[in-house]
Specification:
Strand content: 5-15%
CATH architecture of the largest domain: 3-Layer(aba) Sandwich
Distance between the termini: 28 Å
Number of helices: 8
CATH topology of the largest domain: Rossmann fold
Largest sheet: 4 strands, parallel
Structural class: alpha/beta
Shape: globular
Number of strands: 4
Helix content: 25-40%
Length: 218
């Protein structure tokens, strides 16, 4: 059986000509080989009045006006203002509850209404969804389930207009985004080892984290 050739994509691109138009497109480029109907369908979302257009224009305006001058927290304030959000939900990891409360104070100072739901809301043991005791961090103890679906439902019921994720675990953040009704963005991406700076692992693949480039079963 012949091995299927992997599809070429932006992973293999060495020109990034779509960014500055200063080079050339490779033969396999997604831009030049794209189904035009797909491109036009995507552009239609930005051209029609609605939340997609509002979000796209707001994000682009903030980038153009404040490029390299605002922190992520400040950009979220500017973004919330431009999309007309008054009530801001905070989906927080319990381990970042303190940081989330600080962000809530910042929101209040700037005229927004923060509503926070931490990941342990509902407080049910992990074994209730089928996790084995041996799979817990501390077996044979009460270990509450992270419940991002309930976090999303709580903030949906509160009718938040923008949600901010504060360090939800990998996968838990996926479930929150799936079930949240309001537009969602990140302030903190969790990385317990690197102080919530996950890109540091990518920057150091030539030194401290070169192990990432060696196959391993995780």
């Amino acid at each position: 059986m012949e091995k299927e050739e992997p599809a070429l994509s932006c992973v293999q691109c060495g020109t990034l000509n779509c960014h500055k138009h200063e080079s050339h497109y490779p033969k396999f480029c997604l831009t030049t080989n794209m189904d035009e109907t797909m491109l036009e369908a995507s552009l239609a979302h930005y051209q029609e009045e609605g939340i997609d257009r509002t979000i796209a224009l707001s994000a682009a305006e903030i980038e153009g006006k404040y490029y390299g001058t605002l922190t992520r927290a400040e950009e979220i304030l500017a973004f919330a203002r431009r999309i007309g959000a008054k009530k801001v939900g905070i989906a927080s990891c319990v381990g970042l509850a303190g940081e989330s409360k600080t962000f809530a104070k910042i929101l209040e100072v700037h005229g927004f209404t923060p509503i926070m739901a931490i990941c342990k809301v509902g407080s049910r043991d992990k074994t209730e969804i089928g996790l084995q005791e041996a799979q817990k961090i501390r077996p044979e103890t009460f270990e509450p389930l992270c419940n991002p679906i309930l976090q999303a439902q709580y903030l949906n019921a509160a009718q938040t207009e923008l949600n901010v994720i504060m360090g939800l675990c990998v996968g838990h953040d996926s479930l929150f985004i799936k079930y949240a009704e309001a537009t969602t963005t990140y302030l903190v991406v969790k990385d317990r080892v690197l102080g919530h700076n996950p890109v540091a692992a990518l920057y150091t693949t030539g030194s401290y984290y070169k192990k990432l480039l060696s196959p391993k079963e995780y």
